[in-house]
Prior knowledge:
Layout: H1 9-34, H2 39-50, H3 53-63, H4 67-95, H5 100-122, H6 135-163, H7 169-201, E1 242-246, E2 252-254, H8 256-261, E3 265-272, E4 283-292, H9 293-300, E5 308-313, E6 318-322, H10 323-326, E7 332-337, E8 340-341, E9 351-353, E10 366-372, E11 394-399, E12 405-407, E13 412-419, E14 425-431, E15 439-440, E16 442-443, E17 453-459, E18 465-475, E19 497-504
Parallel strand pairs: 1-10, 12-19
Antiparallel strand pairs: 1-2, 3-4, 4-7, 5-6, 5-10, 7-8, 7-9, 11-13, 13-17, 14-15, 14-18, 16-17, 18-19
Amino acid sequence: MADPTHIRTRSGVAAGAIAALLATIAMMLLVPLAGVPSPLQLIADRLTTAVPVDVFGALLGSLESRAKPLAFAAVILGAVVLGGVAGALAARALRRGLAPGVLFLVLTAVTWALFAGVVAPLGGIGLVGRDGVAGAPRTGIGFLVIAVVFAAVLLLELEEVGGAGARDPGRRRILRLAGFGIPAALAAVVVARAGLRMANESAAAPAPAAGTLVPPVTPTEDFYIVSKNFFNPRVALGSWQLTVDGRVERPRAYTYEELRARPAVRQITTLECISNPIGGHYISTGEWTGVPLRELLAEVGLQPGVVDIVLHAADDYADSIPLVAAMDPDTMLVYDLNGAPLEEAHGFPLRLIVPGIFGMKNVKWITRIEAVDRDFRGYWQQQGWSDVATVQTMSRIDVPADGRTLPAGQPAMIGGIAFAGDRGISRVEVSTDGGKGWAPATLNVPPSPLTWVLWTYQWMPVQPGTARILARAYDGSGAVQDAPERPPLPDGATGYHSVRVHVRGAA
Length: 507
Protein backbone atom coordinates (compact mmCIF):
# COMPACT_ATOMS: atom_id res chain seq x y z
CA MET A 1 0.00 0.00 0.00
CA ALA A 2 1.56 3.27 -1.11
CA ASP A 3 0.49 5.55 1.74
CA PRO A 4 -2.48 4.48 3.91
CA THR A 5 -2.69 7.90 5.54
CA HIS A 6 -4.11 9.33 2.30
CA ILE A 7 -7.04 6.89 2.24
CA ARG A 8 -10.16 8.73 3.34
CA THR A 9 -13.45 7.15 4.31
CA ARG A 10 -15.23 8.43 1.22
CA SER A 11 -12.47 6.97 -0.97
CA GLY A 12 -13.00 3.65 0.77
CA VAL A 13 -16.74 3.86 0.06
CA ALA A 14 -16.07 4.44 -3.65
CA ALA A 15 -13.54 1.60 -3.75
CA GLY A 16 -15.97 -0.77 -2.06
CA ALA A 17 -18.79 0.17 -4.42
CA ILE A 18 -16.61 -0.50 -7.48
CA ALA A 19 -15.41 -3.78 -5.97
CA ALA A 20 -19.04 -4.83 -5.42
CA LEU A 21 -19.90 -4.03 -9.04
CA LEU A 22 -16.96 -6.02 -10.38
CA ALA A 23 -17.75 -8.91 -8.05
CA THR A 24 -21.28 -8.81 -9.48
CA ILE A 25 -19.81 -9.29 -12.95
CA ALA A 26 -17.88 -12.29 -11.62
CA MET A 27 -21.19 -13.72 -10.35
CA MET A 28 -22.78 -13.17 -13.74
CA LEU A 29 -19.94 -15.03 -15.45
CA LEU A 30 -19.86 -17.96 -13.03
CA VAL A 31 -23.56 -18.75 -13.48
CA PRO A 32 -23.36 -19.79 -17.17
CA LEU A 33 -19.71 -20.91 -17.18
CA ALA A 34 -19.65 -23.03 -14.04
CA GLY A 35 -23.29 -23.39 -13.02
CA VAL A 36 -22.61 -21.68 -9.69
CA PRO A 37 -25.73 -20.31 -7.95
CA SER A 38 -25.77 -16.52 -8.01
CA PRO A 39 -25.88 -14.89 -4.56
CA LEU A 40 -27.86 -12.07 -6.20
CA GLN A 41 -30.52 -14.52 -7.36
CA LEU A 42 -30.64 -16.18 -3.95
CA ILE A 43 -31.12 -12.82 -2.26
CA ALA A 44 -33.82 -11.85 -4.77
CA ASP A 45 -35.64 -15.15 -4.17
CA ARG A 46 -35.60 -14.56 -0.43
CA LEU A 47 -36.81 -10.98 -0.80
CA THR A 48 -39.59 -12.14 -3.10
CA THR A 49 -40.86 -14.64 -0.54
CA ALA A 50 -40.70 -11.96 2.17
CA VAL A 51 -43.00 -9.57 0.28
CA PRO A 52 -46.66 -9.92 1.36
CA VAL A 53 -48.58 -11.81 -1.29
CA ASP A 54 -51.04 -8.98 -1.98
CA VAL A 55 -48.21 -6.48 -2.40
CA PHE A 56 -46.35 -8.89 -4.67
CA GLY A 57 -49.44 -9.33 -6.83
CA ALA A 58 -49.96 -5.58 -7.12
CA LEU A 59 -46.33 -5.01 -8.10
CA LEU A 60 -46.42 -7.81 -10.66
CA GLY A 61 -49.62 -6.47 -12.16
CA SER A 62 -48.27 -2.95 -12.56
CA LEU A 63 -44.68 -3.74 -13.59
CA GLU A 64 -45.09 -6.97 -15.64
CA SER A 65 -41.90 -7.55 -17.68
CA ARG A 66 -40.16 -4.63 -15.94
CA ALA A 67 -40.37 -6.38 -12.57
CA LYS A 68 -37.26 -8.54 -12.96
CA PRO A 69 -34.90 -5.80 -14.22
CA LEU A 70 -36.10 -3.50 -11.44
CA ALA A 71 -35.56 -6.23 -8.85
CA PHE A 72 -32.09 -6.81 -10.29
CA ALA A 73 -31.35 -3.09 -10.02
CA ALA A 74 -32.55 -3.04 -6.40
CA VAL A 75 -30.36 -6.00 -5.43
CA ILE A 76 -27.35 -4.47 -7.22
CA LEU A 77 -27.93 -1.21 -5.38
CA GLY A 78 -27.98 -3.10 -2.10
CA ALA A 79 -24.74 -4.87 -3.02
CA VAL A 80 -23.11 -1.53 -3.90
CA VAL A 81 -24.18 -0.04 -0.57
CA LEU A 82 -22.81 -3.01 1.37
CA GLY A 83 -19.62 -2.84 -0.69
CA GLY A 84 -19.29 0.83 0.18
CA VAL A 85 -19.66 0.07 3.88
CA ALA A 86 -17.01 -2.67 3.60
CA GLY A 87 -14.74 -0.26 1.74
CA ALA A 88 -15.09 2.39 4.43
CA LEU A 89 -14.24 -0.16 7.14
CA ALA A 90 -11.27 -1.42 5.10
CA ALA A 91 -9.92 2.13 4.66
CA ARG A 92 -10.20 2.70 8.39
CA ALA A 93 -8.40 -0.57 9.13
CA LEU A 94 -5.53 0.37 6.81
CA ARG A 95 -5.15 3.79 8.39
CA ARG A 96 -4.84 2.07 11.75
CA GLY A 97 -1.96 -0.05 10.49
CA LEU A 98 -3.56 -3.38 9.51
CA ALA A 99 -1.37 -5.12 6.92
CA PRO A 100 -2.90 -5.30 3.43
CA GLY A 101 -2.28 -9.06 3.23
CA VAL A 102 -4.15 -9.65 6.48
CA LEU A 103 -6.99 -7.38 5.33
CA PHE A 104 -7.25 -9.33 2.07
CA LEU A 105 -7.64 -12.60 3.97
CA VAL A 106 -10.20 -11.07 6.33
CA LEU A 107 -12.29 -9.60 3.49
CA THR A 108 -12.18 -12.87 1.56
CA ALA A 109 -13.14 -14.97 4.57
CA VAL A 110 -15.99 -12.70 5.69
CA THR A 111 -17.45 -12.39 2.18
CA TRP A 112 -17.26 -16.14 1.59
CA ALA A 113 -18.84 -16.88 4.98
CA LEU A 114 -21.65 -14.40 4.27
CA PHE A 115 -22.48 -16.10 0.97
CA ALA A 116 -22.01 -19.69 2.12
CA GLY A 117 -23.41 -19.46 5.64
CA VAL A 118 -26.18 -16.87 5.30
CA VAL A 119 -27.20 -16.19 1.70
CA ALA A 120 -27.16 -19.83 0.53
CA PRO A 121 -29.36 -21.18 3.37
CA LEU A 122 -31.75 -18.24 3.09
CA GLY A 123 -31.92 -18.86 -0.66
CA GLY A 124 -33.07 -22.42 -0.04
CA ILE A 125 -29.96 -24.34 -1.17
CA GLY A 126 -28.55 -25.14 2.26
CA LEU A 127 -25.22 -24.38 3.92
CA VAL A 128 -22.58 -23.80 1.21
CA GLY A 129 -25.24 -24.83 -1.32
CA ARG A 130 -25.19 -28.48 -0.30
CA ASP A 131 -28.91 -28.86 -1.15
CA GLY A 132 -28.64 -27.15 -4.53
CA VAL A 133 -28.13 -28.55 -8.00
CA ALA A 134 -24.48 -27.50 -8.13
CA GLY A 135 -23.75 -29.03 -4.73
CA ALA A 136 -21.43 -27.84 -1.97
CA PRO A 137 -18.04 -28.26 -3.73
CA ARG A 138 -18.88 -26.24 -6.82
CA THR A 139 -20.88 -23.67 -4.87
CA GLY A 140 -18.18 -23.25 -2.26
CA ILE A 141 -15.46 -22.75 -4.87
CA GLY A 142 -17.65 -20.34 -6.83
CA PHE A 143 -18.38 -18.26 -3.75
CA LEU A 144 -14.65 -18.23 -2.96
CA VAL A 145 -13.88 -16.87 -6.44
CA ILE A 146 -16.40 -14.07 -5.97
CA ALA A 147 -15.01 -13.26 -2.52
CA VAL A 148 -11.45 -13.14 -3.85
CA VAL A 149 -12.50 -10.82 -6.68
CA PHE A 150 -14.21 -8.48 -4.25
CA ALA A 151 -11.30 -8.38 -1.80
CA ALA A 152 -8.63 -8.04 -4.50
CA VAL A 153 -10.43 -5.25 -6.37
CA LEU A 154 -11.12 -3.38 -3.14
CA LEU A 155 -7.46 -3.46 -2.12
CA LEU A 156 -6.29 -2.50 -5.61
CA GLU A 157 -8.66 0.46 -5.62
CA LEU A 158 -7.39 1.53 -2.21
CA GLU A 159 -3.83 1.14 -3.49
CA GLU A 160 -4.67 3.64 -6.25
CA VAL A 161 -6.03 6.02 -3.63
CA GLY A 162 -2.90 5.64 -1.52
CA GLY A 163 -0.78 6.41 -4.54
CA ALA A 164 -2.79 9.54 -5.24
CA GLY A 165 -1.06 11.37 -2.41
CA ALA A 166 1.56 12.77 -4.73
CA ARG A 167 1.96 16.53 -4.79
CA ASP A 168 1.18 16.71 -8.50
CA PRO A 169 -2.59 17.41 -8.76
CA GLY A 170 -2.66 16.31 -12.40
CA ARG A 171 -1.19 12.94 -11.56
CA ARG A 172 -3.64 12.59 -8.69
CA ARG A 173 -6.59 13.20 -11.03
CA ILE A 174 -5.27 10.65 -13.53
CA LEU A 175 -4.84 8.05 -10.79
CA ARG A 176 -8.33 8.66 -9.52
CA LEU A 177 -9.75 8.33 -13.04
CA ALA A 178 -7.83 5.10 -13.62
CA GLY A 179 -8.67 3.76 -10.17
CA PHE A 180 -12.32 4.78 -9.92
CA GLY A 181 -13.79 6.20 -13.12
CA ILE A 182 -12.84 3.58 -15.70
CA PRO A 183 -13.67 0.46 -13.61
CA ALA A 184 -16.95 2.03 -12.47
CA ALA A 185 -17.95 2.91 -16.04
CA LEU A 186 -17.11 -0.55 -17.37
CA ALA A 187 -18.98 -2.27 -14.56
CA ALA A 188 -22.01 -0.02 -15.03
CA VAL A 189 -22.13 -0.84 -18.76
CA VAL A 190 -21.97 -4.61 -18.15
CA VAL A 191 -24.63 -4.50 -15.42
CA ALA A 192 -26.90 -2.29 -17.56
CA ARG A 193 -26.60 -4.69 -20.50
CA ALA A 194 -27.53 -7.55 -18.18
CA GLY A 195 -30.62 -5.63 -17.12
CA LEU A 196 -31.64 -5.10 -20.73
CA ARG A 197 -31.14 -8.80 -21.44
CA MET A 198 -33.42 -9.64 -18.52
CA ALA A 199 -36.12 -7.39 -19.92
CA ASN A 200 -35.91 -9.31 -23.19
CA GLU A 201 -35.96 -12.66 -21.37
CA SER A 202 -39.28 -11.83 -19.70
CA ALA A 203 -41.47 -10.74 -22.57
CA ALA A 204 -45.04 -11.22 -23.64
CA ALA A 205 -45.80 -12.40 -27.14
CA PRO A 206 -46.09 -9.40 -29.46
CA ALA A 207 -49.54 -8.05 -30.17
CA PRO A 208 -50.78 -8.90 -33.66
CA ALA A 209 -50.45 -6.32 -36.41
CA ALA A 210 -53.37 -3.92 -36.81
CA GLY A 211 -56.38 -5.61 -38.36
CA THR A 212 -55.00 -9.15 -38.09
CA LEU A 213 -55.30 -12.14 -35.79
CA VAL A 214 -52.41 -14.02 -34.24
CA PRO A 215 -51.17 -17.04 -36.25
CA PRO A 216 -52.61 -20.39 -35.11
CA VAL A 217 -49.09 -21.50 -34.09
CA THR A 218 -46.77 -18.90 -32.58
CA PRO A 219 -43.34 -18.51 -34.22
CA THR A 220 -40.58 -19.42 -31.79
CA GLU A 221 -39.12 -15.91 -31.86
CA ASP A 222 -42.50 -14.52 -30.73
CA PHE A 223 -43.22 -17.15 -28.06
CA TYR A 224 -43.68 -15.52 -24.66
CA ILE A 225 -40.93 -15.93 -22.05
CA VAL A 226 -41.24 -15.79 -18.27
CA SER A 227 -38.55 -16.75 -15.76
CA LYS A 228 -37.91 -15.91 -12.14
CA ASN A 229 -34.16 -15.93 -12.79
CA PHE A 230 -31.77 -13.04 -13.23
CA PHE A 231 -29.54 -15.42 -15.19
CA ASN A 232 -31.09 -18.46 -16.83
CA PRO A 233 -29.04 -21.67 -16.61
CA ARG A 234 -26.97 -22.80 -19.56
CA VAL A 235 -27.03 -26.56 -19.54
CA ALA A 236 -24.08 -28.44 -21.04
CA LEU A 237 -25.29 -31.58 -22.79
CA GLY A 238 -22.02 -33.37 -22.10
CA SER A 239 -22.77 -33.57 -18.40
CA TRP A 240 -26.58 -33.41 -18.47
CA GLN A 241 -28.78 -36.36 -17.69
CA LEU A 242 -32.36 -36.85 -16.57
CA THR A 243 -32.64 -38.75 -13.31
CA VAL A 244 -35.94 -40.44 -12.40
CA ASP A 245 -36.10 -41.53 -8.78
CA GLY A 246 -37.99 -41.14 -5.51
CA ARG A 247 -40.68 -43.67 -4.73
CA VAL A 248 -39.90 -45.88 -7.72
CA GLU A 249 -38.85 -49.50 -8.10
CA ARG A 250 -36.02 -49.01 -10.60
CA PRO A 251 -34.39 -45.57 -10.47
CA ARG A 252 -32.48 -44.72 -13.60
CA ALA A 253 -30.97 -41.90 -15.63
CA TYR A 254 -31.48 -40.97 -19.29
CA THR A 255 -29.11 -39.09 -21.55
CA TYR A 256 -30.28 -36.54 -24.08
CA GLU A 257 -29.41 -38.90 -26.91
CA GLU A 258 -31.42 -41.72 -25.32
CA LEU A 259 -34.49 -39.53 -25.03
CA ARG A 260 -34.24 -38.31 -28.63
CA ALA A 261 -33.76 -41.89 -29.85
CA ARG A 262 -37.14 -42.94 -28.46
CA PRO A 263 -40.25 -42.85 -30.68
CA ALA A 264 -41.21 -39.16 -30.81
CA VAL A 265 -44.63 -37.66 -30.26
CA ARG A 266 -45.65 -34.28 -31.72
CA GLN A 267 -48.36 -32.23 -30.17
CA ILE A 268 -49.64 -28.66 -30.60
CA THR A 269 -50.45 -27.11 -27.24
CA THR A 270 -51.12 -23.61 -25.94
CA LEU A 271 -49.15 -22.43 -22.92
CA GLU A 272 -50.30 -19.55 -20.71
CA CYS A 273 -48.57 -17.87 -17.76
CA ILE A 274 -50.58 -17.65 -14.55
CA SER A 275 -49.60 -13.98 -14.33
CA ASN A 276 -51.28 -13.20 -17.66
CA PRO A 277 -53.66 -10.26 -17.07
CA ILE A 278 -57.06 -9.81 -18.72
CA GLY A 279 -56.34 -9.22 -22.39
CA GLY A 280 -52.66 -10.01 -21.86
CA HIS A 281 -50.16 -11.60 -24.23
CA TYR A 282 -48.35 -14.03 -21.91
CA ILE A 283 -49.87 -16.86 -23.92
CA SER A 284 -48.56 -18.69 -27.01
CA THR A 285 -49.12 -21.87 -29.00
CA GLY A 286 -46.35 -24.18 -30.15
CA GLU A 287 -45.75 -27.56 -31.74
CA TRP A 288 -43.84 -29.63 -29.19
CA THR A 289 -41.86 -32.82 -29.82
CA GLY A 290 -40.88 -35.25 -27.10
CA VAL A 291 -41.94 -38.33 -25.17
CA PRO A 292 -44.94 -38.96 -22.90
CA LEU A 293 -43.95 -38.64 -19.24
CA ARG A 294 -45.96 -41.70 -18.31
CA GLU A 295 -43.69 -43.92 -20.44
CA LEU A 296 -40.67 -43.08 -18.29
CA LEU A 297 -42.68 -43.47 -15.09
CA ALA A 298 -43.83 -46.91 -16.27
CA GLU A 299 -40.24 -47.94 -16.94
CA VAL A 300 -39.05 -47.06 -13.44
CA GLY A 301 -42.16 -48.50 -11.77
CA LEU A 302 -44.04 -46.34 -9.29
CA GLN A 303 -44.39 -47.57 -5.74
CA PRO A 304 -47.81 -47.52 -4.03
CA GLY A 305 -48.79 -44.25 -2.40
CA VAL A 306 -47.31 -41.81 -4.93
CA VAL A 307 -49.21 -38.49 -4.82
CA ASP A 308 -47.15 -35.99 -6.82
CA ILE A 309 -44.48 -36.04 -9.49
CA VAL A 310 -41.88 -33.35 -8.74
CA LEU A 311 -39.86 -31.74 -11.53
CA HIS A 312 -36.45 -30.36 -10.48
CA ALA A 313 -34.65 -27.86 -12.71
CA ALA A 314 -31.06 -26.80 -13.32
CA ASP A 315 -31.74 -23.45 -11.61
CA ASP A 316 -32.85 -25.13 -8.35
CA TYR A 317 -36.48 -24.42 -9.23
CA ALA A 318 -38.96 -27.19 -8.49
CA ASP A 319 -42.68 -27.71 -8.92
CA SER A 320 -45.04 -30.64 -9.06
CA ILE A 321 -48.08 -32.03 -10.82
CA PRO A 322 -50.53 -34.62 -9.46
CA LEU A 323 -49.95 -38.22 -10.44
CA VAL A 324 -53.15 -38.27 -12.50
CA ALA A 325 -51.84 -35.35 -14.60
CA ALA A 326 -48.44 -37.01 -14.98
CA MET A 327 -50.06 -40.18 -16.32
CA ASP A 328 -52.16 -38.30 -18.87
CA PRO A 329 -51.00 -39.30 -22.38
CA ASP A 330 -50.87 -35.62 -23.39
CA THR A 331 -48.33 -34.73 -20.67
CA MET A 332 -44.94 -34.68 -22.35
CA LEU A 333 -41.25 -34.20 -21.77
CA VAL A 334 -40.29 -32.13 -24.79
CA TYR A 335 -36.97 -31.28 -26.43
CA ASP A 336 -38.15 -29.50 -29.60
CA LEU A 337 -40.34 -26.45 -30.19
CA ASN A 338 -41.70 -25.84 -33.69
CA GLY A 339 -39.36 -28.41 -35.20
CA ALA A 340 -36.10 -27.19 -33.65
CA PRO A 341 -34.34 -27.91 -30.34
CA LEU A 342 -35.58 -25.82 -27.44
CA GLU A 343 -33.86 -22.49 -27.06
CA GLU A 344 -32.22 -21.71 -23.73
CA ALA A 345 -35.03 -19.35 -22.70
CA HIS A 346 -37.63 -22.05 -23.39
CA GLY A 347 -35.98 -24.73 -21.28
CA PHE A 348 -33.17 -26.44 -23.24
CA PRO A 349 -32.55 -29.33 -23.16
CA LEU A 350 -35.81 -30.63 -21.67
CA ARG A 351 -39.01 -29.18 -20.30
CA LEU A 352 -42.48 -30.32 -19.29
CA ILE A 353 -45.68 -29.61 -21.20
CA VAL A 354 -48.83 -30.49 -19.27
CA PRO A 355 -52.08 -29.33 -20.90
CA GLY A 356 -54.67 -27.49 -18.83
CA ILE A 357 -52.24 -26.23 -16.18
CA PHE A 358 -50.63 -22.79 -16.08
CA GLY A 359 -47.06 -22.36 -17.29
CA MET A 360 -45.35 -22.19 -13.89
CA LYS A 361 -45.85 -25.96 -13.54
CA ASN A 362 -44.55 -26.64 -17.05
CA VAL A 363 -41.03 -26.76 -15.62
CA LYS A 364 -38.04 -25.83 -17.80
CA TRP A 365 -34.41 -27.05 -17.70
CA ILE A 366 -35.45 -30.35 -16.07
CA THR A 367 -32.68 -32.43 -14.50
CA ARG A 368 -34.61 -34.73 -12.18
CA ILE A 369 -38.07 -36.27 -11.85
CA GLU A 370 -39.00 -37.42 -8.37
CA ALA A 371 -42.04 -39.44 -7.29
CA VAL A 372 -43.22 -38.42 -3.79
CA ASP A 373 -45.96 -39.54 -1.41
CA ARG A 374 -47.10 -36.03 -0.43
CA ASP A 375 -48.42 -32.81 -1.91
CA PHE A 376 -45.26 -30.99 -2.93
CA ARG A 377 -45.50 -27.21 -2.99
CA GLY A 378 -42.96 -25.49 -5.18
CA TYR A 379 -41.35 -22.07 -5.34
CA TRP A 380 -44.43 -20.10 -6.38
CA GLN A 381 -46.87 -22.05 -4.19
CA GLN A 382 -44.80 -21.07 -1.15
CA GLN A 383 -45.51 -17.46 -2.10
CA GLY A 384 -49.26 -17.86 -2.31
CA TRP A 385 -49.87 -18.88 -5.90
CA SER A 386 -52.26 -21.69 -6.79
CA ASP A 387 -51.14 -25.26 -6.24
CA VAL A 388 -53.76 -26.67 -8.61
CA ALA A 389 -53.08 -23.93 -11.24
CA THR A 390 -55.90 -24.96 -13.57
CA VAL A 391 -56.12 -22.68 -16.60
CA GLN A 392 -59.02 -20.22 -16.41
CA THR A 393 -61.34 -19.89 -19.37
CA MET A 394 -60.35 -16.67 -21.15
CA SER A 395 -61.01 -14.65 -24.28
CA ARG A 396 -59.13 -11.72 -25.78
CA ILE A 397 -60.02 -9.12 -28.39
CA ASP A 398 -57.17 -8.46 -30.82
CA VAL A 399 -59.16 -6.68 -33.53
CA PRO A 400 -60.01 -3.81 -33.46
CA ALA A 401 -57.33 -2.32 -31.23
CA ASP A 402 -58.41 -0.29 -28.23
CA GLY A 403 -59.03 3.34 -29.21
CA ARG A 404 -59.42 2.59 -32.91
CA THR A 405 -61.72 4.80 -35.02
CA LEU A 406 -64.19 2.98 -37.29
CA PRO A 407 -66.41 4.49 -39.98
CA ALA A 408 -70.15 4.16 -39.49
CA GLY A 409 -71.98 2.14 -42.10
CA GLN A 410 -68.99 0.02 -43.08
CA PRO A 411 -68.46 -3.59 -41.92
CA ALA A 412 -65.75 -4.11 -39.33
CA MET A 413 -64.21 -7.36 -38.16
CA ILE A 414 -63.95 -8.13 -34.46
CA GLY A 415 -61.68 -11.04 -33.60
CA GLY A 416 -59.30 -12.60 -31.12
CA ILE A 417 -58.52 -15.78 -29.23
CA ALA A 418 -60.23 -17.92 -26.60
CA PHE A 419 -58.64 -20.59 -24.44
CA ALA A 420 -59.72 -23.00 -21.71
CA GLY A 421 -56.78 -25.37 -21.43
CA ASP A 422 -57.61 -28.99 -22.20
CA ARG A 423 -61.35 -28.31 -21.79
CA GLY A 424 -61.61 -26.76 -25.26
CA ILE A 425 -63.84 -23.90 -26.43
CA SER A 426 -67.46 -24.50 -27.45
CA ARG A 427 -68.65 -20.94 -28.02
CA VAL A 428 -67.54 -17.30 -28.05
CA GLU A 429 -69.93 -14.38 -27.80
CA VAL A 430 -69.40 -10.70 -28.58
CA SER A 431 -71.15 -7.62 -27.25
CA THR A 432 -70.90 -4.27 -29.03
CA ASP A 433 -73.06 -2.34 -26.56
CA GLY A 434 -71.13 -2.72 -23.33
CA GLY A 435 -72.60 -6.09 -22.34
CA LYS A 436 -76.32 -5.48 -22.84
CA GLY A 437 -76.66 -7.86 -25.77
CA TRP A 438 -74.54 -10.75 -27.01
CA ALA A 439 -74.12 -12.42 -30.39
CA PRO A 440 -72.24 -15.61 -31.34
CA ALA A 441 -68.87 -15.36 -33.03
CA THR A 442 -67.51 -17.68 -35.70
CA LEU A 443 -64.90 -20.12 -34.44
CA ASN A 444 -61.95 -21.22 -36.57
CA VAL A 445 -60.90 -24.87 -36.40
CA PRO A 446 -58.20 -25.01 -33.70
CA PRO A 447 -54.76 -26.54 -34.41
CA SER A 448 -55.56 -29.23 -31.81
CA PRO A 449 -58.01 -29.86 -28.95
CA LEU A 450 -55.33 -28.48 -26.56
CA THR A 451 -54.94 -25.04 -28.08
CA TRP A 452 -56.56 -21.67 -28.24
CA VAL A 453 -59.34 -21.01 -30.75
CA LEU A 454 -59.28 -18.04 -33.09
CA TRP A 455 -62.69 -16.38 -33.49
CA THR A 456 -64.23 -13.59 -35.57
CA TYR A 457 -67.43 -11.55 -35.64
CA GLN A 458 -68.64 -9.24 -38.42
CA TRP A 459 -70.07 -6.00 -37.08
CA MET A 460 -71.76 -3.12 -38.85
CA PRO A 461 -71.34 -0.02 -36.68
CA VAL A 462 -74.19 2.43 -37.29
CA GLN A 463 -74.48 4.91 -34.45
CA PRO A 464 -71.64 7.47 -34.21
CA GLY A 465 -69.98 7.76 -30.82
CA THR A 466 -68.00 5.49 -28.49
CA ALA A 467 -68.74 1.77 -28.36
CA ARG A 468 -67.49 -0.71 -25.77
CA ILE A 469 -66.85 -4.17 -27.20
CA LEU A 470 -66.64 -7.22 -24.94
CA ALA A 471 -66.00 -10.92 -25.51
CA ARG A 472 -66.72 -13.99 -23.43
CA ALA A 473 -65.94 -17.66 -24.01
CA TYR A 474 -67.53 -20.95 -23.03
CA ASP A 475 -65.40 -24.02 -22.39
CA GLY A 476 -66.06 -27.44 -23.88
CA SER A 477 -68.58 -28.30 -21.18
CA GLY A 478 -70.59 -25.15 -21.90
CA ALA A 479 -69.49 -23.27 -18.78
CA VAL A 480 -69.02 -19.54 -19.39
CA GLN A 481 -65.85 -17.80 -18.26
CA ASP A 482 -66.02 -15.94 -14.95
CA ALA A 483 -67.26 -12.36 -15.35
CA PRO A 484 -65.97 -10.81 -12.07
CA GLU A 485 -62.58 -9.20 -12.59
CA ARG A 486 -59.88 -10.73 -10.43
CA PRO A 487 -56.10 -10.23 -10.64
CA PRO A 488 -53.75 -13.04 -11.66
CA LEU A 489 -52.71 -13.76 -8.05
CA PRO A 490 -53.37 -16.45 -6.86
CA ASP A 491 -55.43 -18.48 -9.39
CA GLY A 492 -55.07 -16.63 -12.68
CA ALA A 493 -56.96 -13.58 -13.93
CA THR A 494 -60.70 -13.66 -14.61
CA GLY A 495 -63.07 -11.16 -16.22
CA TYR A 496 -64.20 -10.13 -19.69
CA HIS A 497 -61.75 -8.34 -21.94
CA SER A 498 -63.08 -5.16 -23.53
CA VAL A 499 -61.95 -2.45 -25.92
CA ARG A 500 -63.42 0.96 -26.73
CA VAL A 501 -63.69 2.18 -30.29
CA HIS A 502 -64.86 5.45 -31.78
CA VAL A 503 -67.47 5.26 -34.53
CA ARG A 504 -67.18 8.16 -36.94
CA GLY A 505 -70.27 9.38 -38.75
CA ALA A 506 -70.41 9.78 -42.53
CA ALA A 507 -68.74 12.94 -43.81
